[in-house]
Amino acid sequence: MISKYVVPLTQVDEVRDAHLAFLEGLEARNLVVTAGRQDPPNGGVVVLNVDEEARALELIAQDPYVLRGVAEYTATGWIPTRGALKDYPKP
């Protein structure tokens, strides 16, 4: 999932703790592989461990960033074939 902030960064940061807690909950369920802010900070990337785009969209719809209207996400499928995530366990 690739996000784009749709409000000033100061408004995004007001929701950031809730967003990070949300991601932590997904991590605990083995649904987040990695995540982070883009540089420069105009959005972020969340790599979800799901099989279908519909599931990714269902999960990300619960993100406080979405619920509070500070970011929009685009789903981008990706299958790692090299590097550290090549053999990452499937859901």
Describe the structure concisely for a colleague.
It holds the Pfam family YCII. InterPro entries: Dimeric_a/b-barrel, YCII. The chain is α+β, with helices and mostly antiparallel strands and 91 residues long.
Describe the structure.
The protein is an alpha+beta fold. It has one domain (2-74): Alpha-Beta Plaits. 35% of the residues lie in helices and 21% in strands. It is built from three helices and four strands. It has helices at 9-28, 53-60, 64-67, and strands at residues 2-5, 32-37, 44-48, 71-74. The strands form two sheets. A two-stranded antiparallel sheet has the order 1-4. Strands 2-3 form a two-stranded antiparallel sheet. Strand 2 and strand 3 (44-48) form a beta hairpin. The radius of gyration is 13 Å and the shape is globular. It starts with a strand and ends in a 17-residue tail after the last strand.
What's the average pLDDT? 96
Strands, count:
4
Strand order of the largest sheet: 1-4
Just name the CATH architecture. 2-Layer Sandwich
Helix proportion range: 25-40%
What topology does this entry show?
Elements: E1 2-5, H1 9-28, E2 32-37, E3 44-48, H2 53-60, H3 64-67, E4 71-74
Antiparallel strand pairs: 1-4, 2-3
Descriptive key words:
Dimeric_a/b-barrel, YCII-related domain-containing protein, two-stranded antiparallel sheet, 91 residues, YCII, two-stranded antiparallel ribbon, 4 strands, Alpha-Beta Plaits, 21% strand
